[in-house]
Task: inverse folding
């Protein structure tokens, strides 16, 4: 039996909105999977969209060009869903205080690492883990470990936020 | 050309996905960083909840003989070959996620909650995805 004090230290903000959000994320992917057979991830669009403006062969592989349209539609859906939530919750716009150099350098590494590693938090973390893919289990374990190490180190160096 | 129905399904699925990311607060880098600094483990329920729901659908459909109504495709599992890139890419992604507190899907949702500074991260992700092809050809 988990004590209330332990629960509060592990989950200082409760778990309900986290769990509900996770279920909705799963329902969104499942809705697409059931009707189309696709297992959509969020990072491929970062690569496939380059095919609109670049002649580089790797951007113009069949898998990229064939999927670039619906991947942009999927991305537009994600943005729209967050807009919808913001309007319904009435909270107004929210902006981060995390420093721009962190967003810039971190974002570059996220783009490079997710494309090199064949997926991100949704492609490997949701669809791959949901497929019980050993490759995805390994990738998720690696990125979680290094993300925890990096975030902890950066905080220890006194960088906030 | 993909049909209107196909694109509508992808859009609505993305919409649910975006509501989930906003509701779970994963679209906020500060919340992700508090998880990665082991101060709030709630984000385990976001990825876990999403993977369980998706996993149930994949487990049932990928072992059936049925095909997807809008594409005629057989239901499969999302499988990728294991190689060095999976490890190196995961390491680079992890360092970037731990530094910025944002991953691709959450970054798109972050635009939707009005977080304009996240556009810096998205632009940088596009540059990073371009840099990947300079490495791999």
Result:
């Amino acid at each position: 039996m988990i004590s209330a004090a332990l629960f509060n230290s592990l989950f200082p903000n409760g778990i309900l909105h986290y769990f509900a959000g996770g279920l909705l994320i799963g329902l969104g992917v499942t809705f697409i999977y059931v009707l189309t057979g696709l297992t959509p991830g969020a990072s491929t669009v970062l690569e496939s969209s380059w095919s609109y403006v670049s002649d580089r062969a790797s951007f113009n592989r069949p898998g990229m060009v064939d999927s670039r349209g619906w991947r942009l539609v999927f991305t537009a859906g994600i943005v729209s869903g967050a807009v919808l939530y913001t309007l319904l919750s009435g909270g107004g716009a929210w902006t981060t205080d995390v420093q721009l150099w962190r967003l810039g350098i971190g974002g570059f590494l996220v783009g490079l690492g997710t494309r090199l590693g064949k997926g991100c938090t949704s492609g490997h973390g949701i669809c791959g883990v949901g497929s019980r893919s050993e490759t995805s289990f390994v990738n998720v374990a690696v990125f979680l470990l290094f993300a925890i190490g990096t975030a902890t180190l950066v905080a220890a160096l006194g960088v906030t936020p | 050309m993909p049909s209107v129905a196909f694109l509508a399904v992808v859009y609505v699925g993305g919409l649910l996905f975006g509501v989930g990311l906003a509701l779970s607060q994963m679209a906020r880098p500060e919340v992700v960083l508090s998880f990665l600094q082991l101060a709030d483990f709630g984000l385990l329920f976001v990825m876990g909840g999403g993977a369980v729901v998706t996993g149930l659908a994949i487990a049932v459909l990928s072992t059936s003989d049925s095909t997807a109504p809008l594409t005629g495709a057989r239901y499969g599992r999302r499988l990728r070959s294991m190689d060095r890139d999976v490890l190196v890419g995961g390491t680079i992604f992890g360092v970037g996620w731990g530094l910025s507190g944002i991953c691709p899907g959450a970054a798109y949702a972050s635009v939707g909650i009005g977080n304009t500074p996240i556009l810096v991260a998205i632009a940088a992700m596009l540059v990073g995805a371009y840099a990947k092809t300079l490495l791999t050809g």
Remarks:
- The first helix of chain A runs from residue 4 to 10.
- Chain A touches chain B through 119 residues (CB under 8 Å).
- The mean pLDDT of chain A is 97.
- The helical segments of chain A are 4-10, 16-36, 44-48, 62-89, 100-116, 123-130, 134-156.
